[in-house]
Amino acid sequence: MNDAVSCPVMNILGIETSCDETSAAVVRNGTDVLSNIVKSQVEIHAPYGGVVPEIASRNHLANLPYAVNHAMKEAGMDWKDIDAIAATYGPGLASSLMVGLSTAKSLSWRLGKPFIAVDHVAAHIYSAFLGENSPLFEETIPFVALVVSGGHTSLFKVEEDRNILLGQTIDDAAGEAFDKAAQLLGLGYPGGPAIDRMSRGGNRDLVDFAEPRIKPENQLIGELDADLCFSFSGLKTALMYYLKDHFQGENDGFPASVSASFQEAVVSAIVKRSARALEVTGTGVLAVGGGVSLNTRLREQLEDISKKMNTRLLLADPDYCGDNAAMIAGIAASGRCMSGKEAMQLDVQPSINYIAGTQIANCK
Ligand code: KG4
Ligand code: ZN
Question: Ligand 1 in contact with 289 (CB < 6 A)?
Answer without folding.
Answer: no
